[in-house]
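RECORD TYPE: inverse folding
INPUT: structure tokens
STRUCTURE:
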């Protein structure tokens, strides 16, 4: 799947929230287990000067975006996680250049929260999940 196939402008709608029997329940579980590993990658992205705004992409299918850091098949989990950055999202058009400041102003402290771009069949959206 290509990134341009993912973007669902969700303006004015509620952020993706876990519901009973939702795949997002399994995402919460997987993120909890791998919270520390994801935090380490976020710190590495920031320390190496790649970005001040790491983004982790959670999905359940093939994806060409960012770098795979947690493979659901290898780890026997429900979700795969890719590491990316705000700059890559702008470069490929998932974040419009005109919305960069809006994104930055809403981005939560990356030392306390992981920024996750969640892709589900209904669309995709950003959520901020506190590290465990």
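DESIGNED SEQUENCE:
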């Amino acid at each position: 799947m290509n990134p341009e196939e993912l973007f669902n402008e969700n303006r004015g709608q509620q952020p993706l929230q876990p519901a009973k029997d939702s795949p997002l329940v399994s995402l919460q579980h997987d993120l909890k287990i791998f919270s520390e590993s994801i935090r380490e990658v976020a710190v590495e992205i920031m320390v190496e000067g790649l970005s001040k705004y790491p983004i982790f992409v959670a999905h359940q299918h093939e994806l060409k975006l960012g770098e795979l850091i947690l493979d659901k098949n290898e780890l026997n989990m429900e979700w795969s996680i890719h590491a990316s950055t705000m700059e890559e999202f702008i470069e490929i058009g998932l974040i419009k250049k005109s919305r960069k400041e809006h994104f930055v102003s809403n981005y939560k402290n990356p030392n306390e929260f992981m920024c996750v771009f969640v892709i589900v069949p209904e669309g995709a959206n950003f959520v901020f999940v506190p590290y465990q």
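NOTES: The beta strands are 54-59, 67-70, 80-85, 113-120, 123-130.
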